[in-house]
Amino acid sequence: MKIEIYDTTLRDGAQGAGIDFTDDNKREVIAALDKLGISYIEAGNAALASDVKFFDDIAEMKLENASLAIFCATRKPNTSACDDKVLRAAASCHAPVVTVVGKSSAYQIEHVLRTTVNENLAMITDTVSFLRRAGKRVFFDAEHFFDGYGDDPNYALTVLKTAYEAGAERLVLCDTNGGMLPDVIGVVVNAVHKRLPEAQLAIHCHDDMGMAVACSVEAVISGAMQVQCTVSGIGERCGNCNLDTVLPILQLKLGYACVPPERLSSLTRTAREVSEAVNLSFNEHAPFVGGYAFTHKAGMHIDAVRKRPRSFEHIAPELVGNSSDVLISRISGKSAYGAVLERIAPELELEVGSEKFNKVISHIRDYESRGFQFENAEASFLLVVREALGIRREPFELLTFRVIIGEPISVNPKSLSAAWIKVAIPDGEGGVREEFAAAEGLGPVNALDVALRRALSAVYPRLENVRLSDYRVRVLDSASDTTASSVRVLIESTDGVSVWRTVGVSVDIVDASWQALRDSIEYYLSKEAEG
Fold this sequence. Notes:
Blueprint: E1 4-7, H1 23-36, E2 40-45, H2 49-57, E3 67-73, H3 85-92, E4 97-103, H4 106-113, H5 117-133, E5 137-143, H6 145-151, H7 153-166, E6 170-175, H8 182-195, E7 200-205, H9 212-221, E8 226-229, H10 243-253, H11 267-277, E9 295-296, H12 299-307, E10 325-326, H13 334-344, H14 355-369, H15 378-388, E11 397-404, E12 417-426, E13 432-441, H16 444-456, E14 467-475, E15 487-494, E16 499-506, H17 509-529
Parallel strand pairs: 1-2, 1-8, 2-3, 3-4, 4-5, 5-6, 6-7, 7-8, 9-10
Antiparallel strand pairs: 11-12, 12-13, 14-15, 15-16
């Protein structure tokens, strides 16, 4: 059975705090979702002139799988749809689908819309009919449907019947407040399905209780054939049903056809691309697509997964474009280190228990005794392994750097730190070339980061793709005076496609930051050199 995935990342998702898409971002998201095989992409709101223009701008965009939809509300009370500027914009824009939101709760109609229940029905009929005459496919979002059904089921069902008879192709039952339990959703969807057996039902759940995915799954089991959701669950308040989670549940666990099977493997990449487009920190603990979704740390788990992956992995990670992983820590046994080395550096052929292997472990233990922790810094771990074997090839050498810290931001909001740096870079002919650069930044680490990449850019221009996506500091020996304690700095970097983490430890936070920053750049350049 086919279940349609209706993505509203660019409309409902954009209503989330801190979320903002440029037109270029929107094009990237649409292309990624279309490649994934999503059925519908709601790309804007007809009430916003800029969104309407965007649909005109992408009129020639070729989509293989998705149909575009624009969102709007019913006409206002006691007016005419043909006189409504927003509805006229929706009718004339290049989106083939218009999703109309209308009230289905008598309480909302009386206290928020401030009109009568009969006028609300007239608004729905007039709006849907107007858009159908304009040649649009119309989906009807029954706002606050489950609340309205709880108060007056007959009226809520009448709203749906009115929209259906006016020409709405999909009746979208909305848990607008996100306050429903899955069993309630199931009972109500099943009841609606029995009362309107010819209608095509859809579900739209908000995540205010953390149950939007569960409620959406229950709705499908009970008769809904379309799920509205957003990438990473972004959206108003606590967000929406998470596409990254609900899609593989429906397709892999329940056997519904949502996207072509071969497309599902691009899910993890799509989720990361959308987070990158909106400049959000990616949730590495997210089910299915997170970096830790199939990561194992406990020795017993690692041993079992190496023998039989399904022992601690509920699906094959590759099905959603993810991969299995193993974390190491100072308490890890040799088998854990062996598993990591086998995965990240199989070319080194480090057999557990061999002389080379023991040499590497001894070198790593020495770093760990100084406060380094490689559990979340695999890029630094690989560099340390190469160092232990004498094969670490540094793409640049630090000659000197200096950081000048400006006034505290709280004293002078315009204050900037400055850094200058000199590095030596192999010229490929046995010599070196020296490069010097200076930069300002919001704090010493930012200034140093900008200066380093500026110094290296003449030789390594591809570094323009790299940026820091996270920066964390932890005090290690907190029993002593914390202002003189060692600190561990963890830096997360990305080139917009992959993510890697590096670590530095020092009593000087700038020095610790430099170590992590150096490793980040070195790891990226070595990875690029290896192809």
